[in-house]
Task: structure prediction
Amino acid sequence: MVEKEYPARLNQVSKRTAAAGFLGPATLVVTVMLAAPLLLLLRFSLNRYDIKELMIETVTAENYLRFFTDPFYLGVLRTTVLVAVTSTVLCLLFGLPLAYRLARLQSRWKSLCMLAIVLPLFVGSTVRMVGWMILFAHGGMIDSAVRWVNGVGLEVMYTPFAVVAGIVSINLPYVVLTIQSAIETIDIRIEEAAQSLGAPPGRQFWLVVWPLALPGTAIAGILCFILAMNAYATPYLLGGPRFQMMAPLLYWEFSTNNNWPFASALALILMSTTLVLTACSNVLIPRRYRA
Amino acid sequence: MTDLRSISRRAMLAGASALPFAPGLARAEDQQVVIATWGGDYANLLRDNVEVPVLTPQGIKVVQDIGDEDPRVAKALAQRRLPRGTDDVLCLQAVRAHELGDAGLLEPLDATKVPNLAHVLPDLRNQFYAPHIFSQQVLVYNPNTVKTPPKRLTDLLDPKYKGKVGVGDINYMYVMMACALAATGDVNKVEAPATRELAMKLNANGLRLYPSTDSIGAGLKSGEIDVGLMWKARVVMWQNAGIPVAASFQEEGTVLYISGMVVPKNAPNKAGAYRYLNAMLERGSQSRFAERMGYQPTVDNSPLEGKVAEQLSLPTGVSKFFTPDYGITGPLQSSVSEWWKKNIQHG
Result:
């Protein structure tokens, strides 16, 4: 009996060692590559900006105080969160039915449909934004079409609508693919069982599919929210100079003003806000449905 | 036969330290000049009109380090403590060049190092940069829709231009300089209350901010705007591209936009950098830039001829040009940027 157990335990130990051996280097590289720049960013954010010296080494909280005491910067953060939340809600609203239909599709066209969802990811987001610019611009397709109908054009470029539309177009494929893969794992017989017990389609979805798809949907939402919070090209190109979000603002501080300490503080504030809000979103999901 | 193991540590160190002075290696490095510049037409024109015809025959190989101006400035500042930087020549706007010069990062320039500096127009001379091109900031308008051209910046406050005036957001400092000139008569008073008041009034009249210079041309072409503020050089480029646009010189005077080249103190090949600057100031190089980009030559021995001379000629009576005092406006960039962000962009 002891002789049989011993090799099994040895086997388990050697498996653990092998797993650690495989995971160790990658984990170390990721940890160092993530932690080192963040620590450097934190250190820079505590320095003082000087036009001639670029940075004066010191330990001061003035960059953070400047942000939190100035209504302008708080307003930019508020806009960023609002845009990210709106984009996430819209992506979930548009993405969920699409993902459900795709997951339950039993057709030879399914691969083609999947390809159609993934296809936008083949084109860089900046290139896609240029396409939106042509569509939204003064004299562009939308403006011209509306002008042809009622004689007055419709200015969409450089509006919050343009920014949200741009972000939704970028994030939607990620949301659909994430939710679709979550729904694929739900056994269709459960839905059939609900149906056989007399539940109408809406009730079936709400009481059976939705709770089971919730963890995957939450991950899709979090992914979308993080991407939207950190959007740079979309607000810059479609929002124009008057529409301010955190990522373009911190790039302006870093590159145009050369204020690296304040830009570092902005970067850490943006990252912390995203992390805190992402953690808080977990509260919205009932405990029994959490992944 | 000498055994490698028999070489002493001291001899090895002495040999290693002498390596940089090895004639072959030193020659190879001296023949290469790295220029940090904008890309696109500007870089192509530098290659076609300065590097290939002038420097290549001299045996100088040029490497273009292409990028935006802001990261270029940031890199120069970050490399300030290094004994050897990565670039020999930096292409910068005059205001940014002065910023680096004031921070003690640039080699002072004179005609002993760069002989062609002797031909530079008097108003454009500066100890920190060799001016390459310049242009006047003028009022631009669509001649198809604007029958009476604006004559002063304050003319753009007319309600008939509401929502039809456009400026480049990246040119905020020059817009404020134009406001300063119109409101106070002094181009350097970019933070004066009257200057700010005029900028706010322009903004209240539906001022359109464009993220890039090219997008202003697109705005004029599509009819989104009728008037704006832009470099005369751009007017020439847009006219050549078929965009309906004309220029009007402000009665109060116009601000000069100057772009030039500088040599960092820690440039690896300063001798090569000076030769580059000299080649850039050659009359042939200068006139070809004017023909292609519409910027005016900065030297007195490169007269323009033909269509470009006609396009860049000054209307009768126009003589008031102002070069900002970068010693005053340079340190104000950060605070003006902050004000612009909060009151114009967000206003």
About this structure: The mean pLDDT of chain A is 89. The longest helix of chain A spans residues 2-45. The beta strands of chain A are 48-50, 54-56. The longest strand of chain A covers residues 48-50.
